[in-house]
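Budget justification aside, the reviewers requested a transparent look at the raw inputs and outputs of the sequence design task funded under Objective 1. We therefore reproduce one unedited record. The lines immediately below are the C-alpha cells for a 231-residue chain.
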C-alpha cells in the first residue's frame, strides 16, 4: 500500500507580514519547510512526498531547502494554485495509482511521527481521518453583528489540524465535486463530510502541532523546538 504525502507550501503567508514566504523563515536554525519535510522523509511508512510550491519559488526551494538533506522521497514539485484547495487539487492530479494520501500544511513543522502513525492506522481502516485536539477555550457562535447565537457543548469540540489522511480515490472524487459545495470549506475533510456522505474519524494529536501563521507563532515555535519531546 503506497502512502503519499502532499506538503503544501504555496501560500502567500500574508498574516505573517514577512518579506519572505513564511515557510522559508528560519526556526531552530533551519527553514520551517525543512523541518516539516524531514519528519516525513525519515518515516519508513511514507513512500512519496509531493511538494506544492509557488511557480516563482520552485528554484529557490530546490537550491535552498532540498539540498539541506536527503529529500529523495520528494517525487515531484507541484505548482501551487491561488487558494489552498487549488494547491491540493493540483497535487492530487499528479498522484497516480491507489493508496492513502496525507495532506499536510508545510507551516506545521512540529508534527510528530507517532501522531502520523496513529492517523495512518485509523485511515487505513476507515478511509478518512484527521488529527485534532480537544478545544481548551469555550467556543461561541456569533452572527455578523457579533451577537452570540449559541455556545456549543465544549466536550464535543475539537480543533482540527493536519495531516488529514484519505483514501486517494475518495479524496480525488471529492475534489472533482468541490465546485458543487455551496459553502466555503476550511479543510480537506469537510469535502468528504459534505460531498461524499462518508464518515471522517477524529484522531487525537498534540497541542504542539501548531500552524505557523502570525509573528507570535515564531516565538512560540522556537520554544516548542527547544522543549518538544516524542510523547
Ligand atoms: N494557495 C495556497 C494557500 C496556502 N497553501 C498552504 O497551505 C498551508 C496552510 O495555509 P495558511 O497557513 O493559511 O498559509 P497562507 O495561505 O500562506 O497564509 P495567509 O492566509 O496568512 O496568507 C500553508 O502551508 C500554505 O503554504 C498553499 O499551498 N497554497
Ligand atoms: C487545514 C487547516 O490547517 C486545519 O486547521 C486550516 O483549516 C487551514 O486554514 P488556513 O486558513 O489555510 O490557515
Amino acid at each position: 500500500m503506497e502512502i503519499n504525502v502532499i506538503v503544501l507550501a504555496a501560500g502567500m503567508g500574508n498574516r505573517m507580514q514577512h518579506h519572505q514566504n513564511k515557510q522559508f523563515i528560519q526556526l531552530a536554525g533551519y527553514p520551517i519547510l525543512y523541518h516539516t519535510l524531514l519528519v516525513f522523509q525519515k518515516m519508513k511508512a511514507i513512500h512519496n512526498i509531493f511538494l506544492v510550491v509557488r511557480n516563482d519559488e520552485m528554484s529557490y526551494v530546490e537550491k535552498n531547502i532540498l539540498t539541506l538533506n536527503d529529500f529523495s522521497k520528494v517525487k515531484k514539485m507541484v505548482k501551487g494554485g491561488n487558494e489552498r484547495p487549488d494547491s491540493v487539487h493540483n497535487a492530487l492530479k499528479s498522484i497516480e495509482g491507489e493508496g492513502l494520501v496525507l495532506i499536510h500544511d508545510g507551516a506545521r513543522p512540529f508534527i510528530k511521527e507517532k501522531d502520523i502513525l496513529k492517523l495512518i492506522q485509523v485511515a487505513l481502516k476507515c478511509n478518512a481521518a484527521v488529527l485534532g485536539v480537544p478545544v481548551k477555550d469555550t467556543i461561541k457562535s456569533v452572527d455578523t453583528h457579533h451577537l452570540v447565537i449559541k455556545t456549543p457543548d465544549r466536550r464535543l469540540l475539537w480543533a482540527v489540524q493536519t495531516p488529514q489522511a484519505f483514501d486517494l480515490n475518495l479524496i480525488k472524487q471529492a475534489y472533482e465535486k468541490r465546485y458543487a459545495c455551496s459553502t466555503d470549506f476550511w479543510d480537506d475533510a469537510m469535502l468528504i463530510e459534505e460531498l461524499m456522505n462518508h464518515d471522517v474519524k477524529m484522531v487525537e494529536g498534540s497541542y504542539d502541532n501548531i500552524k505557523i501563521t502570525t509573528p507570535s507563532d515564531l516565538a512560540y515555535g522556537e520554544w516548542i523546538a527547544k522543549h518538544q519531546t516524542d510523547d
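The longest strand covers residues 158-167. The mean pLDDT is 95. Computational costs for records of this kind are itemized in the attached budget.
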